[in-house]
# Entry
Amino acid sequence: MCDEDGAAEDYPTEIAESLTGFDSSVGSVNKMVDTMISLSKNELLQKLDPLEQAKLDLMSAYSLNSLFWIYLVTQGINPKDHGIKQELERIRTYMNKVKEITDRKKAARLDRGAASRFVRNALWEPESEKPEAEGPHQSKRRKQS
# Structure
């Protein structure tokens, strides 16, 4: 951001912090892209299950299209009037579908056996006064009339 003489370039001093943050972000993106490029796609995909592969592909497509959106903005083109908007919406739709699948996998499953034992034991009635001949281990189930 400084030329050879060390003097500041022609930009308002109010945006110096924003430019520094932007430069840092570009450096982070560059580092991530270098990491992605260093591995072959086949090596990377072999280590992932199909759901993770879909997430990676969607993330890559969304990132590249977002960068193209930024490029259009820097060229003075309104990206909302460009086909990139529809492409980003399409990718976002697929990302939501993958998220739904992931959420379904994480959802609690009903263990029918445990649920029936829980209900059966919750319906337990205290022993009524009966002769001791039946023994101490009587059935806990309700008597049906």
About this structure: The helical segments are 16-38, 41-46, 50-74, 84-106, 112-122. Confidence is low (pLDDT under 50) at residues 1-7.
